[in-house]
Design brief:
mainly alpha, 16 helices, 2% strand, elongated
């Protein structure tokens, strides 16, 4: 009889334990869901720091695991973004040098997929601003303030060789990643190519950064319509390519160095004759390519950088003429052909990357209010 009683008692205890555990689980889920729905209920980052004493990193890890678990469970929903900012802001306050939260935030926050996300334009803009706040916190925690300011303001910091080798600039940050991602955010989402160009340069100054960062820094400059700066940045890259006689890099590099000296002379005047001479010299150095496909490595050859620089010079020449056109007709020319027909230019520059089956022309882009190419 005692055995039966004990067995019944054991069964009742297990059932009670299961029910209590189930109730607790539901309550914990409810609390977590409430936290997600109302991130304002999370401890403030100041409170989290003040109550962690000597265990900040441990507490940051705990919050990080909570955040990751929630992301994977709710990746299709956009609700996690509101919660995630508060959580990651707190994590990076507890452990400022924990890089993963910054990277995850950059990947998830600015993106918007209308197929499964229902966010207002205002909310999307808030998300982007929050990412910038997190990214700037990374810059503050991971970078040398003096080097960041020098790269931002010094003329020498536009020289990519000095950017990588001069002690004033080299290795300004503990990692290149967030600066590179910030550059993308500023251009893609905030439509600010000037700031994007700066962050690409900041990223490139780190020895282990992507080579592509210097190309993007130069491209962003012309998108800010600082074509002269972009011209010299591309020429600078061309002049610093490794000597490789088989690929004409030595000749190309020397020609680029000559162009830098020639165009910075106080007596230099940009006219049709200069454009023609550069075009003819470039064709002698690089005979026109046949209709073959360019290799990926072409993007880091001297010829590629030089071609980009020459395009910028062509567009500077055209835009100077278009300024005079606008003064006379109170409107811009529609393309380079109209400038030629009305004798504001003496020739239409040939784009260095034009091919028999891929002609590139210069035209006035109404959306950008500047001359562009297509």
């Amino acid at each position: 009889m005692k055995k039966v009683f004990l067995i019944i008692l054991l069964i009742i205890s297990l059932i009670c334990f299961y029910l209590i555990n189930e109730i607790n689980y539901k309550k914990i889920r409810e609390i977590k869901l409430n936290t997600v729905e109302h991130p304002e209920n999370l401890p403030t980052k100041e409170m989290a720091v003040n109550t962690s004493i000597w265990f900040r990193n441990l507490k940051a890890d705990f919050y990080w695991l909570e955040a990751i678990q929630y992301i994977w469970s709710n990746a299709i929903s956009s609700k996690y973004k509101k919660y995630l900012y508060s959580m990651l802001d707190t994590i990076t306050e507890l452990n400022p040098f924990f890089e993963h939260p910054y990277v995850i935030w950059e990947l998830l926050l600015p993106e918007y997929n209308q197929r499964y996300e229902k966010l207002s334009k205002e909310t999307q803009e808030i998300n982007i601003k929050q990412w910038v706040d997190i990214g700037l916190k990374w810059i503050k925690n991971f970078c040398d303030d003096k080097k960041v300011e020098a790269i931002k303001n010094d003329e020498d910091a536009y020289d990519f060789y000095k950017l990588r080798n001069d002690e004033r600039y080299k290795n300004p940050c503990k990692s290149y990643k967030i600066a590179y991602n910030l550059a993308y955010i500023y251009f893609q989402y905030l439509k600010d190519p000037e700031t994007a160009s700066f962050y690409y340069r900041l990223s490139y100054a780190n020895e282990n950064s992507l080579e592509w960062a210097k190309m993007m820094a130069s491209i962003m400059k012309w998108k800010w319509w600082d074509r002269e700066k972009s011209f010299f940045m591309f020429l600078n890259m061309a002049s610093q390519t490794d000597d490789n006689e088989e690929d004409n890099d030595k000749i190309c590099s020397d020609f680029s160095k000559y162009l830098i000296k020639y165009t910075t002379d106080k007596r230099f005047v940009l006219d049709w004759n200069v454009i023609k001479q550069i075009e003819e010299t470039r064709k002698k150095i690089f005979p026109p390519r046949k209709n073959d496909k360019w290799e990926i490595l072409d993007a880091i050859w001297c010829e590629h950088y030089l071609n980009k620089a020459v395009r910028e010079l062509n567009l500077i020449y055209i835009e100077i003429a278009n300024n005079e056109f606008e003064k006379k007709y109170n409107k811009p020319a529609k393309d380079a052909t109209e400038l030629l027909e009305k004798k504001f230019i003496s020739l239409i520059p040939e784009d260095p990357q034009s091919r028999e089956d891929n002609t590139i022309e210069y035209f006035y882009n109404e959306d950008l209010k500047h001359f562009d190419y297509r």
